[in-house]
Amino acid sequence: xxxxxxxxxxxxxxxxxxxxxxxxxxxxxxxxxxxxxxxxxxxxxxxxxxxxxxxxxxxxxxxxxxxxxxxxxxxxxxxxxxxxxxxxxxxxxxxxxxxxxxxxxxxxxxxxxxxxxxxxxxxxxxxxxxxxxxxxxxxxxxxxxxxxxxxxxxxxxxxxxxxxxxxxxxxxxxxxxxxxxxxxxxxxxxxxxxxxxxx
Length: 199
Description:
Distance between the termini: 90 Å
Largest sheet: none
Strand content: under 5%
Structural class: mainly alpha
Radius of gyration: 25 Å
Order of helices and strands: HHHHHHH
Shape: globular
Number of helices: 7
Helix content: over 70%
C-alpha cells in the first residue's frame, strides 16, 4: 500500500468527521430555533436586547455609520416585505380578479404576509448580530458624515412607507391583527350545544 493512499484515507476520515460535526451542530441549532417559535414576546425581547447592545457599541465607538446605514436599508426592506401581502393584489387583480375582500359581505380571507413574523424576527436578529461583529473590524469603519446618511435614510423611510400606506388604502387591507375579531371553535361548539338542549 502506498503512503499517499494512507494520507488520503486520513483526510477523508477528518472531512467526514467535520461534516458530521457540522450536521449535528446545524441540527441542534435548528432544534432550538424551532422551540423558540411559539415564544413571540421572549424572542422580540431578545432582539431588543441585541439591538440595544449594537446601538450602545456604535454610540461609544462613534463610528461604523456606514454599517448602521446598510443595516437600516436592510431593516426597511424587511419591514416592507412584512407589511405586504404574499400575493400582490395589483398583479392578482389583473390575473384572477380581486383576491382580498373589499366589502363586509365578501368571504373572509386571512392576511398572509410575504415575510412571516418568525422569518422577520430571525432576519432582523441575524442582521444585528452580523453588524455587531462587523464593528470589531476597522476595515468596515469608513469615515462618512453621518447626518447626511441619517437624513437620506429618513427620507427613504418616509417615501417608502407613504407608498405602502397608499397601497394598503387602495386594496383595503390591514397587516396587523390588533383589534380584529377572533373566532374560536369552543364558543361555536357551546352555542351549538345550547341550541340542541333548548330543542
